[in-house]
Amino acid sequence: MYDFIKGTVDYVGPEYIVVENNGIGYQIVTPNPFSYSSNVQQMVQVFIYHHVREDAESLFGFSTRIEKALFTKLLNVTGIGPKGALAVLGSGQVDQVVQAIENEDEAFLVKFPGVGKKTARQMILDLKGKLENVVPDYFPNLFNDGSASAGKATGFNEALEEAALALKALGYSDKEVQKVAKKLDDEEMSTEQYIKKALQLMLK
């Protein structure tokens, strides 16, 4: 329902901030409310997750879409609710959390409040290999599987990477995407053209 709320920070408390927009004060629970202390009476943009239960509705806010996306993924982990997911984001950086999950670093994950060994293992089981679409900036080039020629070390093909994310969102596996990407790597096209061409190859 909500993507973000842009307004003036009216109040900062230990658990939430209040952002005023057009005369309405939105109570927004954030990982680190006091990080907004320097923004009181200033305009901010907070990305919103609207959490609805039978007995309550809450707005959870994040400074970036990536934080919001990771929060949403954490909610899908058995044993982690909104408060637990918020505690993870409040205590660690997104890249640290993602790296720990991908490396199966239980010792790091159990350092977060409310995360024991069982929950840490569940985070790894539920999320490992499933965060590329959410936080692509924290992963290496999707198409660099170690076989790329040295002459192509001049940067990533952004349009092709965006096409890969779209294909993954459609349900294609990493292996399928990498296979078709190799066939398109030498071509220069727009993201949309890459997607169309890739789908044609996928369906052959």
Write the layout of secondary structure elements.
Elements: E1 4-12, E2 16-21, E3 24-29, E4 43-52, E5 57-62, H1 65-75, H2 82-91, H3 94-102, H4 106-109, H5 117-127, H6 158-169, H7 174-184, H8 191-202
Parallel strand pairs: 3-5
Antiparallel strand pairs: 1-2, 1-4, 2-3, 4-5
Helix pairs in contact: 1-2, 6-7, 6-8, 7-8
Structure description:
Helix content is 39%, strand content 18%. With 204 residues, it is an alpha+beta fold. The chain has helices spanning 65-75, 82-91, 94-102, 106-109, 117-127, 158-169, 174-184, 191-202; strands at 4-12, 16-21, 24-29, 43-52, 57-62. α1 crosses α2 (82-91) and α7 packs across α8 (191-202). The protein has three domains: 4-62, OB fold (Dihydrolipoamide Acetyltransferase, E2P); 65-127, DNA polymerase, domain 1, CATH 1.10.150.20; 140-202, Helicase, Ruva Protein, domain 3 (Orthogonal Bundle). The protein is globular, with a radius of gyration of 20 Å. Strands 1-2-3-5-4 form a five-stranded mixed beta barrel. It is found in: Cytoplasm. Belongs to the RuvA family. Its main location: cytoplasm. Keywords: Cytoplasm, DNA damage, DNA recombination, DNA repair, DNA-binding, Hydrolase.
